[in-house]
Write a structure and sequence with these properties.
about 250 residues, alpha/beta, Zincin-like, 2 domains, four-stranded mixed sheet, three-stranded mixed sheet, 7 helices, globular, binds zinc ion
């Protein structure tokens, strides 16, 4: 087989020359597709071979992107949710919207705990305000549940911390500062309970080791032997965060 026929069914890609690039790098995104980033004066004849070698990586990441795209399409992100599934708490809330005329154009939120029902009354045509209110409700819920949950895990593992805060982060599930202050992402509420528990434990272990060293993982494994799989699952976990939240 000639090298030429080997490359006939390569995925399509574009080449970008970057003066900052030190070596060849592949990048895959919805916006730009597959990009091969090369340093200046790079021998372009080598590129097909590199793309060929990275085929598995490309296929794997392409299917992840497709999955995320399909998920976003199915979610109607610009619309308001009818259901909020808080897996970590085993609660599936039904959301109802009641348009009522009010002079001030405000919206109010009513919670029916017994039926896990949330009712928004008022100017519900104002989608942005409705989303803001739903997020505020989620933040309060996160404070209520994640704070006490963290306290329990902290006591059980005998890993004390100083303060907790609930945040809305785009890429972090949690963080721990040098002063042992722990921040938790309210989006954790959407994940399975065992994954949340792992995140809490992970941040608590950072109160002892402020890095991801072997010592750190050893400490984590003392409390959670399945930590590798749980940690890996967090990379995909953002896929189940409802799209309306970030739009
Ligand atoms: Zn960490």
């Amino acid at each position: 087989m000639t090298s030429r026929s080997l490359h006939t069914d390569l995925p399509s890609y574009t080449v970008r020359v970057s003066s900052r690039a030190k070596c060849v790098r592949l990048s895959l995104s919805v916006e730009d597709g597959l990009e091969v980033v090369v340093p200046t004066n790079y021998d372009r004849l080598k590129i097909p071979e590199i793309v060929q070698q990275k085929r598995d990586w490309i296929a794997r990441n392409q299917s992840k992107l497709d999955e995320r795209e399909a998920f976003l399409q199915s979610q109607s992100p610009h619309e308001l949710p009818n259901i909020i599934n808080l897996r970590s708490l085993g609660e599936e809330w039904k959301i109802e919207y009641h348009p009522t005329a009010s002079k001030s154009g405000t919206i109010s939120v009513r919670e029916n705990k017994e039926h896990l029902q949330l009712v928004l009354d008022g100017n519900i045509a104002d989608v942005k305000s409705c989303k803001t209110l739903l997020k505020q409700w989620l933040m309060r819920k996160a404070e209520k549940h994640l704070f006490s949950w963290l306290r329990k895990v902290s006591i059980r593992a005998n890993l004390p911390y100083r303060t907790t805060a609930v945040r809305s982060q785009k890429t972090l599930w949690g963080s721990c500062s040098r002063d042992r202050n722990i921040s938790l992402n309210y989006k954790l509420l959407f994940l399975e309970a065992n994954v949340v528990e792992y995140v809490l434990l992970h941040e608590l272990c950072h109160t002892v080791h402020m890095n991801h060293s072997a010592k750190f993982w050893k400490l984590v494994s003392k409390f959670e032997s399945n930590y590798k799989a749980l940690d890996k699952s967090l990379n995909h976990a953002w896929q189940i965060i409802p799209a309306w939240i970030d739009f």
